[in-house]
Structures are given as structure tokens and as C-alpha cells.
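User: Quick one: structure for sequence A, then sequence B.

Assistant: Sequence A:
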Amino acid sequence: MTRTRRALAGTAVLATALLAAGCGTAAPAAPADAAPAVTVDERLHAALPEDVRDAGVLTMANDPSYPPASSFGPDGRTIVGFEPDLGAALGELLGVEVRFESASFDTLLDDLAADRFDLVMSAVTDTAEREQQADFVNYFRAGSSIVVARGNPLGIHDLSGLCGRSVAVEAGTVQVGLLQRAQAACALRIDVHELPTNDDALLELRTGRADAVLADYPPAVFVTTDPRTQNSYQLVSDTQYEPGLYGIAVAPDRTALRDVLTEALQRLVDDGVYQELLDRWEVGHGAVDAVTVNGALPTS
């Protein structure tokens, strides 16, 4: 069956880029060293669904507010990060273009179900609940970490320190559920601020409207160590709460595409390309040895 694909209008993408540029994180530049070379595998290309081979393009929905996974680059238009680099390597191996397009995180899986995109790759943690909507090809491991204002003026040291505090998170993320579970151990209510993007959540913290931000470990480390933002933010600790696996989301009825992606990604792992790409963005700590499908981990 031919599947429709609607590319985002250029003006909409630019508007999103300008909005993100005014929020909590600076636009990162891609690493200066060249990405590892990858050549087309004709067998894998032939295994792609016919509609993908005919189109020559796989559209990838992405929320570009999560560096170093994905964010708008210095030009305000190009999405850069280890996810776009990994997507590009997959495209080179499969002999198709992988095109990242900006979308709202909170509706990524709905957009996938509506055939607006072929795939979703946007630091989406694979969970049992999300597996009811899509299949996930797992490619990275990360947990949640706490970011506070530089100097940690409120003395927050762990999840229990968020009791009675205001915490900003990106809407639709696993951090929302983590805070709900943490609330059970609190005598005082956690005031959760759900924002459209992680940049918006960081802006809440920087402007004093939130006491902390809960985000995945890689973006938490990025914003607290990047010279352009480290004077505003501090990582509470290296603790990663409820670690899970990121997954490329694929519609459940596209098993052939899912299986080709799984094999192609495992090839990049086995050939060392995957690790090299992660190391370029200083996130090699989240590498997986084996690519799995629907590897949701239980929450505590």
C-alpha cells in the first residue's frame, strides 16, 4: 500500500527554529572531524519496502530541543546531533536519504500513526505503554537526571529533594511519569510544570519559575557543561533514574521496514561506525552492544 508523506512547510520549520533559539540551550555545532564513511549495502537496500525504494527517502520526525541528541544547528534550520548523524549513516547504508523534520515531541507517535512521517527518532524512551502505538528499534541507553540553577541554591541532591518544589519537564516525556512515582514518597506535593520543549523547561529554571528540570542524562550533561550555558545550570549528580532504551519508532504494520532498520543498525554497531558517531558527540557511555526491538525496561 502506498503511504502518504506530508513534509512540513519550510515556514513552519523556521518558526519552530526561531522559537527554540530563544530558549534555554545554545545551538551546538557539529563536531569538526569527518563522520565515518559508509557504503551502500545492496542487499539491505533491496530488502526495503518497495514504496521506500521508489521514494528514495525516509522521513524522520524529531523534536530538535534535546542536544546532543538532536537540536537546531547554528543556522537555525539544520537539525544536528548524534541522532541525525546516526540517521545519515543508516541512510548511506540503505541507499536512501534520511530526512529529519521538526515536530512536537508530545504528538510524535500520533504523527507516525497518521502517516505524516515514516519514522520517529527523537530520544523517545521505549516503554510498554508506547509499544501499544509503535514498534521500537532500540539504539541508545539513558536515564533521567536533575538540573538545577548554578550553585544549587536550594540544596537539591536527589529525587527526594524535589518534594515541595516546582519541577519543569517536557510534556509527553518519561520524566512526567517518573515525577508521579516520586510523588508517592513525598509529604509535600511536587509542582510539575509540563512545557512544549526541553528548551522551554530550561527557560523556566533560568528565569526562576521552576526550581529544577528533570531531563535525560545526555541533555542534562550538555547544558551543564557547554561553555555557553554552564554558568546558568548545574547537574545535581551523575545518577540516572530509571534508565531505559531509546528507540526508533516504526508503525506496527511496517514490520519489513522495522526489520531492515534493525539489521542495518546492528551492522553499524558491528562495524564500529555507531560507536565512533556516539563518541564524536561525547555520548559513548550510552552505547548498546546489541540492537533490540521493543526492549522496554520495567520502571521502579
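Sequence B:
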Amino acid sequence: MMNASLTKILLATDGLREATLAMRAAADISCKMGAELHVVHVFPEVLPPSHPGSTISDDYSRLAEEEARELLRKQGWKARVDGVEIAGEHVREGKPAKEISALAQELDAGLVVAGSRAVGWAKRLITGSVSEGLVHGSSRPVLIVRGGKAAWPPARVVVGDDGTEAAERADVLAAEIASLFGAEVVLVRAYENPPEPVGGWSAQDRCELDEALSRRREDLDERAEQLAALTHHRIGTTLIETKAAPAMSLVAGKREEERTLLAVGSRGLGALDRALSRSVSTKVLRSAHGPVLVVPSEKASAR
């Protein structure tokens, strides 16, 4: 089982409005856990010149790096004014998701925090969003912070639990974050009954379905008890007959969705498998209006 205590947090920032909320979340967790806070900004890779001898790309790269360092300097100054200590400021050049993931592994960060802008479905289909690339490419837990000012800190944490090792890791980290802010924690497990046969269920069929449902409920309650003992935090449970992602949204509730942190484990599927199966973490990330925590499996974390 995962020990969720964090010693290093990496905040990825682009200096835009969404980054302010992400900074607040990262700073809050860092201060309450006593973890080092590192900040990174990634600027786009400069293409090589189209003809030999040109220095345009070198000049642009140097200018972009200077702007990146100035952005970090300003954000670092604002953070320190608010009493937040920055352990390290990092500048990288290249694809944001790839560079952030690499730095997180290099630092051995226990959590990556990033803001998220609204991206239209057409653009996401063609290029993908940075947040999705980060979630699926990182070997570290990733907290994507979105929503208005009221979205952080969360008042409620809803965790999708399917009994897998990745879900257990998400349970622990989500409950520990919830305990920092006194937030309510609910473990959600979704299930689907087989299609009803022609002529309806027999008495024996209904008895077997009831027994299976009872076992599911007992398993979920047992998991909640284990998690409560580990985190010293009260854990609620909800069992819903529907798919996992809709179940989490139902429990979050429309009015409270922005103030609810949704947490899921990720099996580390490849791009093709995600496209074919539409992973739960992808569905949650695309549909949530508030913050989302995605925790990779132990196998993915060991990459």
C-alpha cells in the first residue's frame, strides 16, 4: 500500500490565470505537509534555422529562456510575499508534458500540480491538452487544478475505487490531502449488472444478483475501514449501478462539483488502449469542473 506522505511537490506554471489557483493549491499542500515546493516553466522548443549560418533561432531561444526566468522570478516573489518558500525554480525547453514529467522524476517529486485551461474538443482531438499529456505521461501523481476561486481548498473529496492497486494508491493520497483541509471523503464504486434476459430474472437469478451486490458493498466498506485506520480520517462509501466516471459526477453533485476534488487511479494504458477503451481517468479529467487527482499504478511509478 502506498505511503502518501509527500516530501517534494513540483508546480508547473505558465503564468496565466489558471496558474494562480494551481500555485495556491501547491503552496497549501506544501506548507501543511512540510514538503519542498519546486516550480517549473517550460517554453516551446525552437526549431533549427532553415538555412545554415542563421542565428535567429538561437536569439529566439535565448529570449524565450530569459522571459521564462523572469516569469518564475515574479511568481517566486509573489509566493514569498505570501509566506511560501520556493525550494527550486526550473526552466525547461521542449514539450511541456514531457519536460515536466522528466523533471518530476529527476527531483523524485511525490506530486505534480498544474493548472488547466478550457480546451475545445476539436483542438484536444488534434493536439491533446497539456493536462492530459501530463496525466498519462507522468510516473508521479498529478493534481490538475481548475475551477473558480472557490474550487480550492476542496470541501469534498470523491475517490473512484475499483479495487485495483492504482485505485488504492489514489485512495491513500486523496484521503491524506482531504485530512489537511478537513474535507469529507467518499469512496465510490460503480458496478453494472448483466442485461436482463428475455422473460425477466428468475428468483434464483435475483438471489445471486443480491448476493453479488452484498459482497461488493462489504468489500467497499472494508476498504473504507482500512483507509480510515491508515489516515485517521472518516471515510464514507457509495455504491452505484452505473459506469465509474458518471458515478463520481453523481456523488459530487452539480452544485458542489467545483468544490469537489475527484481522485482516480490510472492503469497506465498506452495511447491506443486509451482511445479504444476511453479510460476512466481520461473521462473524469475531461468532464470535471473542479480539481482532479490522478495517481498512477506502482508499475507506472517505477518507470
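Residues 143 and 209 are 37 Å apart (CA to CA). The chain has two domains: 1-146, 147-303.

User: Thanks, that's what I needed.
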